[in-house]
Every structure is written in C-alpha cells, then in structure tokens.
Amino acid sequence: MSINASYEVTADGGLIHFMPMGILRLSAKDAWNVIANLRPIEIGSQAFELSQDVSCALGNACLIEQANPSACALLQVKNPAMILMRPIASVLAEDALKHFTEGLYQLFQGRAAIAYDGNLTVAGGGEHQVAFNLWQVERDTASHDIYLSFSSLRERISLEQTKDGLQSDLARSARISLLGEMTASIAHEVNQPLGTIVASAEAGLRWLSRDEPDIGETKILLERIANNGKRAADVIATMRAMASNKKSERLPADINSIIEEAILLLRTDFAKRQVTLRLELSPMLPPVKANKTQILQVIVNLALNAAQAMSDGQAWNRTLCIRTSWGATDVMVNVEDSGPGIDPHVRERLFDSFFSTKETGIGIGLAICRSIIEAHGSRIELQSTPHLGARFSFGLPVEQTHADG
Ligand code: ADP
C-alpha cells in the first residue's frame, strides 16, 4: 500500500492542501472489515449495534494518511508526522468519535456524505469544537479512502453569543425604557394634582389661621384637595390598567362636562400664568364613547402645555380657546393657544417619549395624549403658525345610537 504520508502539495492532494478547512484523508480498509463482521441487533434487522467497543475499534481501524496544513493548525500539531499513520480515534473526543463511527457505518451503507458537530482533541490536551464532514469520493467500499473535514465553530459560537448578548441587552434596555416611560408618565400626571393639593392645603391653613377663620373658603379648598386626590388615584388606576394591557372601559360621556372638569382642575395654573380662557362648547352634542379619566388627562395635558407655552414664551396675548363641535361622524375637540407655536424643527419629534424643549420638562405629556387618542380609534392633529400659536385637535367617536342622528 503506497501511503502519501505528508502534507506536501501532491498531485491528488493539491486542492486539499489549500483548503481553508482541516482535511484528513483516512484509510478505511480495516474499518470496512470491522463493519462487515458486525452482527445485527436482531435477526433480519438492518440495524447494527454500534457499541462503545465497536466505536473504539472503528476509530482505531481508520488511520490518518494525509493531513492538510489547516488540519494541523486546528489540531495544534507543528509537524504532520505527529499524526500521520495514527488512528483517527486519537484526535476525536468521545462525542465526535461516536458520530464518526455512525457516519462511517452510513458511508458503508452507500451514503455519500455525513455532517455533524463535535470536538477535536488537540495536541497538548483540550478540545476544540468543530463542524465535521465525512465523505468518500468513490461510493464503493472497494475504495479505502475516506475524507474527514472540520472547521472551527468558535467564531460562529462567539458570534451567536454576541448576538444573544446584544439581544438580551436590547430586551433589557427596552424594558428599562418602558419602565422609565411608565414612571415618567405617573410622575408627570400626578405632579399637577399633587401641586394643587399642596397649594390648596397651604391656602386652607392660612384661611383658618386668620383672626376670623373663613370656613366657607376653607371648605372650597378642602373640596379641591379631595377632587385632586381622587384624580391622582384615577390616573394611577388608568395607568395600571394600561400597563396590564387591560382594555380600558369606554362609556357614554359628555365631552363638554369633561372639559369643564379639566378647567376646574387647572384654574389656579391659568390664574398664575395670566391666561384668559375662552370656551366655545357646542351645546346639544351627542355623548362620546370614551374613557373619561383618559380624555380628562388629554385635555389637562394639552391645556397645560398651551398655558406653559404662552407664559414661557412671554406672549402678550395669552388666550386659550377650547372648542367642541359636531363633525361628520365624530365630536371634535380643539385646544388652541396664542403662544409661540411649534418650531418646525421639532415638530416631527413632538409626540416622541422624552422629547421636551422645557428646562424641567419630562416630555411625556404629548406621547400619553397620542396613545390615549389612538386607543380611542382617532388621531391628534396639529396646526401651528410660528409666533401665532398652536392648535391641537382630535375627534372622538359618538355612541352608536347617536351616530346617525
Ligand atoms: P413636556 O411638557 O414635559 O415638555 P410634552 O410631551 O407635553 O412634554 O411636550 C413636548 C414638547 O412639545 C414641549 O417641550 C414643547 O416644546 C412642545 N409643545 C407642546 N405643546 C405646545 C404648545 N401648545 N405650544 C408650543 N410648544 C408646545
């Protein structure tokens, strides 16, 4: 038997020599004999018992006749002579040997090629995870040459690990940003009623500490405290329902009363900011199908933004106009101010979470408004003229029984 026991470029091994993957040419002559003498597990069965003993026998029967440079590199052998004429079992870890002998058996049965992953045993100890391919060129056991190629899985594994890491980082940051959004929303929505509660309580104390305490005025302030406390609790309950994906309850509601309630809540803010309020509420509107707390939140946010824009922008005319009208199918609500209007450069980002041009702004108010109105099957429209003001408007569906009337 002539054996080409080197990894030099040879006539038949030229291609193999330059392959970027490890390739071993093996002699399977003795292995075919072992397989031919295997006994079937049961009489009449085509299955053969490949016990550990048989695996070892086959692994020892297949000798390495040729190794290309990539194979030597992966096996960490400097000199190919160290592995030539040695059994394949000497470079395969237990799992790889098992797959190899099963593959060998399949080649014996006429399959052309088998692929599997496993570990190489590298020189000096240790293992290296690789992807194996086992094949024979001539599908005939009269030919003794079979080929085993292997390429490192390290890069693929580390790429997958990086991808997994990135994905979990992304998932974490998405969770954190969702958590941040929720926290910011609660802080934003509860801040205003809490401010009113503190201011009203302080004013109430002053009325009571007068020489002649004003019980009437204190009663009004206590009512305001109770209303704002209830509103903060409602906001939190709605947020909790939103977070748990519960569909919010939508009942017939009178939009004009919701607006009037919002005005009551914002009265002190308007006075502080010297904002004049103009209400143009259309009488005889049909009831809308809405979640009252959420729509109250939208109106409070839009009206408060308008008041802030006018006072922060030092507008000399500070008029906030809230208008309702009966559109073709929806009840329309407009919140219009005479402030500085929206800077065209920021218009696209206005409804993004955490976008704010205010020094102490959280940038969550308009994002909340948009998601509430979209959940009601509608959209918030914005019209703005620089230096002349901004108008936010949205429609709300009416109760079905009133839709045609
Ligand atoms: P925040 O009020 O915390 O800044 P919002 O989401 O409510 O967050 O508003 C985002 C930004 O939209 C504001 O910082 C402001 O620049 C702009 N904006 C909102 N309403 C108006 C308005 N009526 N006039 C001018 N700018 C407005």
From TrEMBL:
Catalytic activity: ATP + protein L-histidine = ADP + protein N-phospho-L-histidine
SUPFAM superfamilies cross-referenced by the UniProt entry: ATPase domain of HSP90 chaperone/DNA topoisomerase II/histidine kinase (SSF55874), Homodimeric domain of signal transducing histidine kinase (SSF47384)
Enzyme Commission number(s) of this protein: 2.7.13.3
Pfam family, one: HATPase_c
Class in the EC hierarchy, top level: transferase
One Gene Ontology term of the molecular function aspect: kinase activity
Name of the protein in question: histidine kinase
Species whose genome carries this gene: Rhizobium miluonense
